[in-house]
Design brief:
Blueprint (H helix, E strand, L loop, with lengths): L7 H7 E6 L6 H6 L3 E6 L5 E4 L5 H20 L12 H20 L2 H5 L1
Antiparallel strand pairs: 1-2, 2-3
């Protein structure tokens, strides 16, 4: 997976910025002005929104911070899973389930019905 830079300048270059009317509490100023900000990172398709402030510039800053956090989290290498042995109890449970299933199937055969 290619690494995507998370500095503000790179994000501004790689993101589409969209403004929308942010609903919710905040009064007339928030409800009539497009203060909500939606950022779409073109290379990855990630989308973040910020609507909690009445100021568009504050929401823009918050959206860029969220996008940087999301990209960093996405690019963090995952630790490989270590295979572990099944426990003795889980082995017994599996074998018991197989034995019951086998008995159930054997009981359905013609030979079992004739007896």
């Amino acid at each position: 997976m290619p690494q995507h830079p998370t500095d503000r300048e790179s994000l501004e270059r790689d993101c589409d910025l969209e403004f929308f009317v942010a609903g919710g509490p905040g009064g007339q100023h928030r409800n009539k002005v497009e203060t909500g900000v939606r950022l779409t990172h073109r290379p990855t398709g990630l989308v973040v929104t910020a609507t909690e402030r009445r100021s568009q510039s504050a929401n823009r800053d918050a959206a860029y911070e969220r996008m940087a956090e999301k990209l960093e989290k996405m690019q963090r290498p995952r630790k490989p899973r270590k295979a572990t042995k099944p426990t003795a109890a889980s082995k017994r449970k599996r074998v018991e389930g197989k034995r019951k299933q086998g008995e159930r199937k054997r009981s359905r055969s013609k030979k079992a019905i004739e007896d």
